[in-house]
Amino acid sequence: MLLCSKPSHHNEMFHFPKKLICIFSTLFFILFLYILFNGDDIIEDQDSEYLYRVPYPIMRNSNNESWIKSENIAIVIVLAEGVKREYYKIAINSVECYAKAHGYQFILTHDNVWGCDYLKDKFFRRHCVISKILPKYEAVLHLDADIGVVNQKRKLQEYMNPQFDLIFHDRHFSPEIGMASYIVRNTQYGLDLITEFSNYEKKLPEGSFHGTDNGAIHMFLAEKLFPHNLIELELCRRAWRNSQNVADQFAYTSCIRSLFGANTDFGKVRILRKQGTGYVRDDWLTSGIWSLDRDFMLHGLKTDHLKKVPYGPLRVSPMSQTSWYSPFEGDFDMERCVLGNTTWNHNPRLIGTREDVECGLRMHEMKIAVKKVKYMSRLYSLLSNCYFWRLFQSHFWFIFYY
Ligand SMILES: *[C@@H]1O[C@H](CO)[C@@H](O)[C@H](O)[C@H]1NC(C)=O
Ligand SMILES: *[C@@H]1O[C@H](CO)[C@@H](O)[C@H](O)[C@H]1NC(C)=O
Question: Which parts of the chain are coiled coil (predicted)?
């Protein structure tokens, strides 16, 4: 608004258009604020307070932890060609130390040594690599390199179930299934699905903001699981093709998710609801605070985003997506990471109660649920592809995103 109050030093000729610009920018700004904060009344509704306090049902089968032997499970991290371990040092050390403590196989590899180079997109290449490694084990946990284990006492088997060949999870900060991690079992179905998915690269809609593998998994799974819903599939596919920005991408994702509905289990595929019931979640959602009772792995631990834990009290609320605090005290001593050593040194300031952590996560989940409704409201225009509306949106897409 500074623009409006500044005295004009220019001659009269430009006075009128300037005024117009000023009026329009003000109107636009008000519209922007309205759209930005519209939705907060839904979030701050009195009933929400109750919703934030409902505990997450954590899915765990602790009664049959050893139905797959740990030595037959591989934890696999696929780095793109040339990427160094150093870049994810703390996260990778924690995963390797965890694997050693429980006797899981730990595999850190690059994506250029598995015959997957025919794939252009590194995000698809890593799934190709997983499909090459899987046949040697009973199950594989695929992890992005910036995922670390914080709760070393948990066992992977707790999150697995003989009924499912593939276990995915919903991301907490978007309406998406996250491809940063999944568990796949070495069955014909599991192997075929991952192999076929890695080749789905060629079906990415050209010239669209498609979201690579994270966007593709939705169309891919929907085609697999709901092959008879041709009309819905076609409409969502058009939305995907027309997508020009991240808000469009999420509108497309929401389109597919409406096909999935409220279920989590689809034959041999399970999609864990939000990360609240899963085994991994984003670290920044709770400013790095985690709970021994519920958390297992944290996502987003890149070495050059590491920040010092600030002095003073910490709040369980979202912080910048590009910062995190180390949950550990000191470095990992890899020599001492041996079978049975599950005594790690954590920074006690970052350990919170289950109630506080879950309340923080629920509040974020509510925000995303409201956003999802907003994304859905974009679908019609995304499908009709009206030229001027699209032109306007392509410049101001952020209004619809936030
Ligand atoms: C536990 O796992 C074993 C080995 O797969 C299986 O035979 C048994 O039925 C499982 N028990 C339960 C309670 O699921
Ligand atoms: C277990 O491993 C951690 C991580 O390297 C190390 O800090 C700790 O001292 C080890 N504990 C024992 C008893 O060796």
Answer: none
